[in-house]
Amino acid sequence: MESDIHPGLHGPEVTSPKSRRLREAAKLDRKQGRAKSGRFLVEGPQGIREALRHQAENRPKAVTLHVEPGQAAPRGTGAVLDVWATVEAAERNPDIIEAARKAGIKIKQTAPEALASVAETVNSQGMIAVVEQLHADLTSVVTKEAKLLVVLSQVRDPGNAGTVLRAADAAGADGVIITSSSVDVYNPKAVRSTAGSIFHLPVVTGVGLPEVTELARARGLQILAADGHPPAHDLHVPWDTGLDLARPTAWVFGNEAWGLPEADRAQADAAVAIPIYGKAESLNLATAASIAVYESAKHVRMI
């Protein structure tokens, strides 16, 4: 009944997992579905909150609403297309309800069991959205004005990729570049791990590392490879080795298991190691990247 609809949500309530829009959203759990549609899933209040903030600040117009079968999706703008929420989630997050209202986006009231058919996690906190993928061009990110860039090469774990993107955002990086050999940043786990940061800074995807390093060098950035294998500069005593972390820098981070292959490392101006003072064998990728980009950010802000 209409009287059962939450005042901040729109009915009739979606109760069936077989709802056409929900079934289309469920396809975004797979890379093929995301590539075909140019869309991705955002799960949970924090990600949706940032998606709506991006919508309010940038007023993106949807461009993927009518993609013909077999046709490649056009380059998206980050427009929020669909939002579903349970009554409980709406009551816990009135700010999201208000943000959606101001943006002219109708949040569909949805039964928990119907929402669960789409959610990639066991607990999506009662909210899911479909958003257009955001696309940034390499030349618009790797510029002479850029001070700090993060490049992921052959990174395969979506949680790591998302966490590094979040750290880059927190450190004030100008952009993140994810090479074609790395995980899809629009994987639901990667998106969730960004905690909304995917909407805060430009992310370039689908490029090769040589293309990135060549342009970065031409634009005046030094290229530092995070690599623990000798010979490498010590991140914490760069002045002893002539490394200037105050310079505009593009950090390159490699695979979680084997790091950067020699061919990738050779494209950098220098390799930099994070010292281990205790007995740990190594740091995981996301931790190492967070330390490195914050060290650069600190030096940039000192000049």
How would you sum up this structure, described in words?
It is a single chain. The chain is α/β, with parallel strands linked by helices. The chain has 2 domains: about 10-130, Ribosomal protein L30/S12 (60s Ribosomal Protein L30, Chain: A, 2-Layer Sandwich); about 140-300, SPOUT methyltransferase, trefoil knot domain (Alpha/beta knot, 3-Layer(aba) Sandwich), CATH 3.40.1280.10. Helices cover about 35% and strands about 20% of the residues. A 7-stranded parallel β-sheet has the order 8-7-6-11-9-12-10, with helices on both faces. Strands 1-4-3-5-2 form a 5-stranded mixed β-sheet. Helix 8 (about 160-170) packs parallel to helix 12 (about 285-300). The termini are far apart. The model has no long low-confidence stretch (mean pLDDT about 90).
- The share of residues in helices is 25-40%
> Unreliable runs, pLDDT <50, ≥5 residues?
none
CATH overall fold name of the largest domain? Alpha/beta knot
- Per CATH, the architecture of the largest domain is 3-Layer(aba) Sandwich
The overall pLDDT average reads 90
Q: What is the percentage of strand-forming residues?
A: 15-25%
Q: How many domain units?
A: 2
Which structural class do you get from the secondary structure elements?
A: alpha/beta
Q: Helix and strand succession?
A: EHHEHEHHEHEHEHEHEHEEEHEH
Q: Evaluate the radius of gyration.
A: 21 Å
| Total beta strand runs | 12
CATH superfamily membership of the largest domain: SPOUT methyltransferase, trefoil knot domain
Strand adjacency order, main sheet: 8-7-6-11-9-12-10
Query: What is the overall shape?
Result: elongated
CATH class label of the largest domain: Alpha Beta
**Largest beta-sheet characterization:** 7 strands, parallel
- Whole-Å distance between the termini? 63 Å
Number of helices: 12
